Structure formats: C-alpha cells, structure tokens
Amino acid sequence: MKLSIVIPVFNEENNIIPLLEKLVPVVSKYDYEIIFVNDGSRDQTVNVIKTSAKNNKRIKLLSFNRNFGHQIALVAGYEIASGDAIVSMDADLQDPPSVIPEMIKKWENGAKIIYGKRQKRDVDSIFKKRTAEFFYRFINSLSDSNIPENVGDFRLIDREVVGFLTSLSEHAPFLRGLVAWSGFPEDFVYFERAKRNSGKTHYSVSKMLNFALDGITSFSIKPLRIATYMGFLTASFGFLGILYAIIGKFLLPIPWVTGWTGLFVGVMFIGGVQLITIGIIGEYISKIYIEVLNRPHYLVKERINI
Ligand code: UDP
Ligand code: MG
C-alpha cells in the first residue's frame, strides 16, 4: 500500500520543519510520499522544502507561478499523487498527523472517504463556528449533497475518489462538496483542531464569503429559482398596489395625496430585489464565463523529486 500526503502551502516558512518532524515518523512505516504544493509563497517556504527534499526523496514539491488558491493547489497535488490512499492536510499543524494511522485503518476496512472531524473547535472564534454552522446547514438544504458538519479539507480518500476529483474540469472546485457529492462510503476520525503553529489564517472574512458563494453556486441552482420567486412576489405586490390605486382613486372617498413613504419603501424594496436578482444571475454567468474561457487551472514553475 502506498500513502500520499498532499499539503498546499502558502507562506508557511515556519511551519514546514515542525510539520515534517511530526509527520515523517508517523508515515514512515508506510511506503509514503509527501507532496507540497507551493501556491505562490512569497517567503522562504520553497527553500525550506527544497532543503528537506534534498535529504529525503519522498518529499516532493510542485511550485506554482503565483497564488492560484487553496482548492486548486489541492487538486494539483491529487493529480500527481500516486498513492492508493491520499491524505490532504493543512501545513500549519492544525490537522494532527497522529490520526493518520486511524484513517488508514478505516480505509483498510472499506471506507473510501475518511473525514477528519473536529470534535472541539475551541480555537476557532465564535464567529467562525456560527457562520460555518449556518453555511453548511444552508448549503445542505439547497443541494443534494450532504456535507458533514465540522469537517474541513483534512481527510483520507481512496485512489478511486481522487480519480473522480481529477477528472473534473471545474475552475473553482469546492472539494468538500464534491467529495460528499460523490457518494463513496465514508467514515470519520475525530480530532481536536489545534491552534495554528505559526503565521495567521489565509481565510479572511471576505475570502470565506467568496468560498461560501463558490460552494453554493457550484452545488445548487436554487438561488436562481429563489430569484424568480422573489420576482413573482414583488410583481404581485405591485399588482395589488395598482388595483388599490385604481379603486382608491375612483371609489374610495379618501383624499388621494397620501405621503411619499409608501412610494419610497416600494421603490427601495423593488430596487433591492432587482439588484439581488441581477447579482445572483451574475454569479452564475461569471461561473459560465470562467469555465468557457477554459484557461489552465494553474501554471507550474518548478518540480522537485517528481
Ligand atoms: N493555502 C494555500 N493557498 C491559499 C491559502 C491557503 O495553499 O491561497 C494553504 C495554507 O498554506 C494552509 C492551507 O491552505 O496549508 C489552509 O489555509 P489556512 O490554514 O490559512 O486556513 P484555515 O485553516 O485558517 O481555514
Ligand atoms: Mg489552517
């Protein structure tokens, strides 16, 4: 059995050595390879990896020209991984290598996807926990796939699942959704998510929001439908308003110069609904646009030990 570890790295110079010190002893009882995918780091990350790769040919490096994004880096790692089982993890020691043997056991027992599930997330802020909870509930209610709660990109997947993931040509792959969507037999391994070893998260609030939008638009067209319904709803309000105006003008004995508030609220509301609707449509059109351009998903600068 061959084991591949895929680790996307973006400015992680101080994490590589501590990670390898923990990871290598765990995986060395297997036939292993550790694939670092450098996603356009601007610090010493590449040099640190190169030094390690000189002493250990099982450590491999694929380096991108620039930053293409975490998910693309993962896919690139999957493409060159040759293992029968492939583990993806963060470089910052938030995903403990010590649970990998347990993942492999479950894989040997027949599961094809073994998620690392965060048992406690004390280190994450309340804000991150709540928004994540809301997001997964929302996306699961919108789509057919069922992404388990409290799992990230720390998981072991079988060669077959990797084959499926790398056969896709999506430019903004939402991997945890795709993995769940594939429907292979799954299992869980529980762990406590540690604090980041060094540096800070690359997922700012705006990046998380974009990630969430990518997730939703790649798994559901329901937002478009909701937009249509909103259109119908406001149109019926408008229609009722017209009826009321006509009846009021001719039949009701009320002075017909009532205030501007109703008008203002109506205009704002309909304007808002229209903008949201255009925005939703725009999201999907931009997705089509990116796919139609069909540019390469990433450009490779350098390969070491590959
Ligand atoms: N990462 C990457 N490209 C990016 C952002 C992040 O390759 O554009 C890597 C990063 O080096 C880390 C992993 O993806 O190994 C997860 O990122 P991070 O730890 O910042 O996310 P968090 O764990 O805070 O969600
Ligand atoms: Mg992390």
Task: Describe, in plain words, how this protein is organized in 3D.
By secondary structure, the protein is an alpha/beta fold. The protein has two domains: 2-200 and 296-304, Spore Coat Polysaccharide Biosynthesis Protein SpsA, Chain A; 222-293. Helix content is 50%, strand content 18%. The protein has helices at 16-27, 45-55, 70-80, 100-108, 126-142, 159-166, 175-182, 205-219, 222-250, 261-293, and strands at residues 2-9, 31-38, 59-64, 85-88, 113-120, 151-158, 186-192, 300-304. An eight-stranded mixed sheet has the order 7-5-6-4-1-2-3-8, with helices on both faces. The two termini are 19 Å apart. Bound molecules: uridine-5'-diphosphate and magnesium ion. Residues 90, 92, 94, 196 line the site of magnesium ion. Magnesium ion binds next to loops.
- In CATH terms, the superfamily of the largest domain is Spore Coat Polysaccharide Biosynthesis Protein SpsA, Chain A
Number of helical stretches of at least 4 residues: 10
Order of the strands making up the biggest sheet? 7-5-6-4-1-2-3-8
Q: Output the CATH topology of the largest domain.
A: Spore Coat Polysaccharide Biosynthesis Protein SpsA, Chain A
Structural class estimated from helices and strands: alpha/beta
Radius of gyration: 25 Å
